[in-house]
Input
Amino acid sequence: MYIYDSRQRQKVRFTPIQEGQVKIYICGPTVYDYSHLGHARSAIAFDLLKRTLELSGYGVQVVKNFTDIDDKIIAKAKQEQLDTATLSARFIASYLADMQALGVQRAHLEPKASAHLQAIALMIQALLDKGHAYKTSNGDIYLDTSSDSSYGTLSAHSLDQESVSRLDDNPSKRHEKDFALWKAYKGAQDLGYESVLGKGRPGWHIECSAMIFANLAYRDQAYQIDIHGGGSDLFFPHHENEASQTRCAFNQELAKYWVHNGFVNISGQKMSKSLGNSFYIKDALKVYDGEILRNYLLGVHYRAILHFNEQDLCMAKKRLDKLYRLKKRALQLASPLDLPPPSNPFTHALLEGMRDDLNISKTLSVLEEYLHLANDQLNHPHKPTNQQNAKQVLQDLAFVDSLLGLGSKDPAVYFQLGVDDALKAHISKQIALRAQAKQARDFALADRIREELAKQGITLMDTPTSTTWEKLF
Output
């Protein structure tokens, strides 16, 4: 297994801290708004990593947090005249529903910052006791980055104007790079929790480190966890600061490997709410089935920038259509379903691509070739051989689903996605009228009915006994 380690800036062989076991922490969303396709892409990327590791024989434990204490949450709650817990609960529920629709498997644990205030306060107190943190005159507590000789070694990030703007701008700080661990309560417009540190709330960076230590970390190893993941925008300052405060508090490195997914761009710009071009998952799901979106978002290597456009999405769906047509044909031929084990050469080739830093292009090329060859096999002239081939195909496609999360639906359902009852009734009526026209040898009318349905994305397929239909898009 090879992965690209952002710290080493190269693809390296993956060796877990403990043989056969992998601990992964993924930075989840800050829950002040609905999730967009950037969140979807990150979630799918790490879902693929988890599936690949599990199918490679590892026991995998995944923790993905929810940041439910943050300046943006406080501002949004005030705007909507809600308490922060109610607001956060709404967006957590929405995020989980989106992920389910996209076929993203749930993390084993989904901790919230608000449920780890004691662990956060204890970690900050340890940093104060060891001289790595200091309190300012207004009660805020900062990490003294000058006390960490390794600060900056994770991201190798220079303090250009963009990065400085993302750090706390407080004249009471000792150094420009210092960041807030605890923000003292500022009054009625603020949010504060009682703690041994005084009334206040944690800074963003400390939340993840404390939750990792509380829920996932090895206590007796050089590294607390195997893999820390998140979007590329988190590399600096968030992950740099996490690594620093963990090193200072526990004399351990936080993660052995750091993995980051690339951005989603729309019209050449990184997707972000500040740019006003955010594409909410919930809105996309009103138009496209979650599996279709998943298929598109996983089709570009996780570290590359994905330039979102609907033309590419439509083209990506054709690959999924091929898979479901093969499954449909195999289901027609393979009965009863006493399935053999999956084909070793095929599954090995699929996994080989994914074990190479999730090389999705290689894996999808293997799948594309398989779909072509399997279709040919199902046309074998001898029925027993044909049926056995179909059973093998179904088992192989089940493995594709376990690895990529594609192909779990009934083909009859898949090819009618997005068709409401009224349109289904209309299609049935048109098919009946077309059958009557053909019986009356009015082939011009039969062709017109086919063409009119095609304009609505409905394709008709004639068999010796009936006419079936599919919605292509």
The two ends are 37 Å apart (CA to CA). DSSP finds 16 helices and 15 strands in the chain.
